[in-house]
Design brief:
2 domains, DNA polymerase, domain 1, TIM Barrel, alpha/beta, 14 helices, single chain
Length: 355
Amino acid sequence: MILFGQTLEQLQALCLDEGFPKFTAKQLCDWMYKKRVNDFDSMTNLSLKIRARLNEIAVVGRTSPIDCQTSVDGTKKYLFSCGDDGSDDCRLAAMPLAQSAEAGSQFVESVYIPSSDRATLCISCQKGCKMGCRFCVTGKQGFHGSLTAADILNQFFSIPESEQLTNVVYMGMGEPMDNYEAVKQSIEVLTSDWGLGWSPQRITVSSVGLIPTLKRLLDEMRCHVAVSLHNPFADEREKIMPVEKAYPIAEVVKLLQRYDWHGQRRISFEYIMFRGLNDDLRHAAGLRSLLRGLPCRVNLIRFHASPDMPYRTSSDIAIDNFCNYLNDHGITCTIRASRGEDIMAACGLLAGKKH
């Protein structure tokens, strides 16, 4: 049994079953999340009897990354093993990459992005992804399972820079709204007083727009939300994002318009720029019309070319014109700086492969 990632309530239930004092659950949270201890023997305010029993039935369960690549810009990409059966990482590491894509499907990646005023970690919530966006390397590898809350949080707590982090974004591998319960539980650990105690405003969760669970996120949590949009026109969006057929972006925007975005929580839209596909002023005008009346930000992202993808990056002029049009027409728009492209750590490039 892995205790890391469990909530106070879950640990209280365990203590009740084992006949431990109820306050033991709070002590466990304090050791695992605040003091970041990874073994029961170091939890010195637990009795020897309780520590012995915990060693019999459970582990804390944090694991270190098995690989790290560093970009010329300081970005770091970490690789974690999230296998369900304790697979032999050494055997997988020795395989050619062509084989490891399938055999190593338990691998996920997260990206540490330092800057002058913050240190952000982009974390994954699934092994691969079901959404099938045509431009995404993660989507091309298929879906190999959802992560547990422990798997998600392990990416946060187990990197060397963990205690330096100021922000976390759920924008790595997978669709957070397709693994909602585990994502919610991980955020509960990060934001609760008995956990890390972070403000929800330090957390951003992305989604392609799965309306049922996106509504739950909006109702149940106060973190920032980022929606992957990429084209304002339904017929064109569906060609690159199959989710449009089930959950049209127009309906997603209608849902978002029902909430108050004038407080601390923010809504933003991610918009990857593809040359000749979605980067002219017709698309900018369509985006302006779609988002009219919604206090939001649009983040323009340069497409990061990858093998076997038919798309090209928009020119700098086209990106600047698109951005200026939106800003001139009342929609806050910024151009996101690309980070970590040389190590395949930029947006849409995470593949969960050992290098």
